[in-house]
Specification:
Number of domains: 2
Shape: elongated
CATH topology of the largest domain: Rossmann fold
CATH class of the largest domain: Alpha Beta
């Protein structure tokens, strides 16, 4: 812990009362890395307004010792549960997550609706009676908080059992979006991003899950490699829209996962066709069927097609999961989730790799 930063924090006074803003016994961690100050606070003696405290710490610490952003993690009061074992000291050691299946949802390029598909596949699984978690591994562009109606979440709490995921729609959720503001960019280099992925996997109290969905960032970079090195992933679902431009990048994503020995469970065609909300007629705006043809060409399963419908956009903006309701879009997600689960049950689960690719 930076002694200078610690001394400065402990010298801060609460407005009005003049009491210490943070009691010494509460300050578990205070460190600065690449301009980001991370504070972990133990439970206080009385209830407090976490948002107000975070706002004051932002004001007091921004600019001090080169700090450009403040991240505060509030530990929850002890729950009586046994402490969660800490991850192996070896930073490259494989992690163990209490989930029967770990399924990554990925895409080659952004803008194809991957996070929307991830969230609603999770919703469809919950609707079928499964215990589901969703880890948002899109560190630079987390959209899962909004999709789950958790944009105003004050942060993540840490207990003896580990970091506590938030719960929404019956799904346990963890995202970098809970630790930064809506307009705050995450300006991290690869090692820090890899560390965040491992922490979300190994230090979160996921409990016993049937399925952990991992919403991957677009592309083929550090996070994809970190995932392959960190945990035994059951398989990956590739999301693409039908047009050739999106499929070009989807092929690159599949090639990366094949190199890291993670099974391709199948392809999902998002925005497959438009359903008119007034008359029910359909229109193939992006050229329906391209992903199905690609799956057949590559010899991988085609998991289903998700239509483009205004109700899906409206539900996503409101933080609702359309998969939990009824109608053609919900039915499409249900079919895709069922096909995904079937393929996952037959996949040969690989051991995580620990070496970097050439």
């Amino acid at each position: 812990m930076s002694e200078i930063l610690k001394a400065h924090i402990l010298s801060l006074r609460a407005p009005g009362s003049g009491d210490a803003l943070i009691e010494p016994a509460r300050l578990e961690t205070a460190m600065v890395k690449e301009g980001v100050a991370t504070l972990i606070l133990r439970p206080g003696a009385k209830d407090e307004d976490a948002k107000a405290l975070k706002a004051q710490l932002d004001t007091e610490l921004t600019g001090f010792e080169g700090i450009t952003r403040v991240r505060v993690i509030f530990e929850a009061p002890a729950s009586g549960r046994p402490a969660k074992p800490r991850a192996n000291a070896n930073p490259n050691a494989p992690l163990t997550v209490s989930a029967k299946q770990i399924i990554a949802v990925a895409s080659g390029k952004g803008g194809v609706g991957k996070s929307t598909v991830s969230a609603n596949l999770a919703g469809a699984l919950v609707k079928s009676g499964l215990k589901v978690g969703l880890m948002d591994a899109d560190i630079y562009g987390p959209s899962v908080p909004r999709l789950f109606g958790l944009s105003d979440a004050p942060g993540l709490k840490k207990t003896d059992a580990g970091i506590q995921p938030l719960m929404a729609h019956g799904i346990k959720v963890v995202s970098m979006g809970f630790l930064v503001g809506d307009r705050e960019p995450v300006v991290w280099r690869g090692p820090m991003v890899s560390g965040a992925v491992r922490q979300f996997l190994g230090d979160v109290d996921w409990g016993d899950l049937d399925v952990l969905i991992i919403d991957m960032p677009p592309g083929t970079g550090d996070i994809q490699l970190s995932l392959a090195q960190s945990v035994a992933v059951t398989g990956v679902v590739i999301v693409s829209t039908p047009q050739t431009l999106a499929l070009d990048d989807a092929r690159k994503a599949m090639a990366l996962f094949e190199k890291t020995h993670i099974p391709i469970l199948g392809l999902v065609e998002n925005m497959s066709f438009y359903i008119c909300p007034s008359c029910g007629d359909t229109a193939e705006i992006f050229g329906r069927g391209g992903v199905r043809d690609e799956a057949q060409l590559l010899g991988v399963p085609f998991l289903g097609e998700i239509p483009l419908h205004p109700v899906l956009r409206d539900a996503s903006d409101k933080g609702e999961l359309i998969a939990l309701g009824e109608g053609p879009v919900a039915q499409a997600f249900a079919r895709a989730a069922e096909a995904m689960r079937h393929q996952a049950s037959q996949a040969v689960k690989p051991e995580p790799i620990v070496e970097f690719l050439d």
